[in-house]
Specification:
single chain, 4-stranded mixed beta sheet
């Protein structure tokens, strides 16, 4: 079974066109989606309306949309939001970050 990729639209600093081309070259489906917080499914994530509730999906985008997917889709995201928070990893990697002025 091949996954469908969900790529969040208009994420600053995250151009998706090269990734979309590679996903399609490998024979997988890609949906560019936009999140509308507070809307009910299927209007909460425009561009994903045709996906089954339990579809096999890979996601690239913001933590905000990932947390929505995790809370509202099955099986949801497999991650630790605490570990992904800037407040956690900046303390370890601060000197190596490109944007060092993060206080």
């Amino acid at each position: 079974m091949r996954p469908t990729w969900l790529l969040e639209a208009s994420v600053p600093g995250l151009p998706s066109e090269p990734l979309q081309a590679e996903i399609r070259r490998q024979g997988m489906h890609v949906c560019v989606v936009k999140h509308f917080p507070g809307s009910q499914r299927p209007r909460d994530i425009l561009g994903s309306e045709h996906l089954a509730y339990d579809a096999f999906v890979l996601f690239m985008g913001t933590i905000t949309l990932l947390s929505h997917i995790r809370a509202n889709w099955l099986p949801g995201g497999w991650c630790s939001f605490r570990c992904l928070a800037c407040s956690t990893y900046y303390a370890y990697f601060g000197p190596y970050l490109l944007n060092r002025e993060y206080d």
